Amino acid sequence: MKSKARISLTDTRKLLTRSLHVSVATIVGILLGSAITTTPAVAAQKHYTLRVATFGAASAVQVASFVPLFTKLVEDGSHGQISVQSFPSGSLVGEHAVPSSVENDVADISLTVIGTWLSTVPLSGIVDTVFFSPSSAKFESLIGSGTTLFKALDAAMQVRGVKLLAALDNGSPVIVSNAPLTMPSDLRGKTVRVYDKPTAELVKALGGAPSTITVSDVYAALQRGTVSAALGGLEGAFGLREYEVSKYLLDANGLFGLDVNGYVMNLHALKSLPPDLQKVVLSAATQAGKVTNAAMIKSHVKELGEMRQHGMQVTVLKPGTREYLAFRNALASLSKSQEPQYPASLVHDIVIGEQ
């Protein structure tokens, strides 16, 4: 009986030892399995925030149309993994601070005037030339996402650590003034607000004296008489109520080239996102850009009418008229001098594409 009792005790100890080993192995397996299955879920829950900066009037179409749509497309497309924060009216980045601010990631994404990148991205000046003046109907086919010119500008900006997200047609620049303006001679000797080097060259060619002023300061400059006239986009002139401090508006109907806006993104901020979320951001920018361009084209004619309703005398130069020919002749030499500054293939594509 004692022998059987010892065997039973030994067997019991072996059984307990084996059970303990199985239990430990089972627990370890469960823990490892849990880690394996939960790691992707944890990674999938990582959250990102993108700061979008704009300047000028918050009601301007390039802001009011693009930002809300881009935000919805990004947040919905990322299933909530990306949140978009908007900083309007220069609250985070001013117009001329955009290049340095985006390069240094003060803002992840920002509205920009493409020509303001001229000092660091020389190719950007091509959209500010007199010869770059596609009709609204041809804008997307010349500089929309995926076109040769868009890719060239994007590649040049990426050297600076910046990604071009969208190019926007802000129409031909207009000039507002407190004196009648229908001929180039009307600008002779007058101080005119400009926003970059190409627009300064344009004003000089017309006999004026350029003065670089940010869009947010134009109203005060006109009000105080710091400048006699201001060159800029119609969207900005209307949105900032420049009709309150000026009486005349000249729309050169493409002779001044185009005021091309856009949205740019810090390249590191983009590449910090997982590949699938990068695609969401880029796709959202392309879609929002197309919708915004269509809205900006429609708003141009409407806003000219509203400027008239606010008491401004609006002059739109019409091809073949004495005034149109006078401005075209005054700018002919400038146009010819600008073409050799840029790749011949791009200039050729622009000239052909505009026909």
- Class per helix and strand makeup: alpha/beta
CATH topology of the largest domain: D-Maltodextrin-Binding Protein, domain 2
How many strands? 11
Residue-averaged pLDDT: 89
Quaternary structure classification: single chain
Shape: globular
CATH class of the largest domain: Alpha Beta
N-C termini distance: 112 Å
Spatial strand arrangement across the major sheet: 7-6-8-5-9-11
Radius of gyration: 30 Å
So how many helices? 13
* Low-confidence parts: 1-7, 12-17, 19-32, 34-43
Named at the architecture level, the CATH assignment of the largest domain is 3-Layer(aba) Sandwich
Task: Name the helicity range.
Answer: 40-55%
Counting structural domains, the number is 2
Strand percentage, roughly?
15-25%
State the major sheet. 6 strands, mixed
What can you tell me about this protein's structure?
The protein has 13 helices and eleven strands. It folds into two domains: 48-169 and 260-298, 3-Layer(aba) Sandwich (D-Maltodextrin-Binding Protein, domain 2); 174-257 and 300-354, Bacterial extracellular solute-binding protein, family 7 (D-Maltodextrin-Binding Protein, domain 2), CATH 3.40.190.170. The protein is globular and about 65 Å long. It has a six-stranded mixed beta sheet, sandwiched between helices. A five-stranded mixed beta sheet has the order 2-1-3-10-4. Mean pLDDT is 89; it is low at 1-7, 12-17, 19-32 and 34-43. The chain is of the alpha/beta class. The termini are far apart.
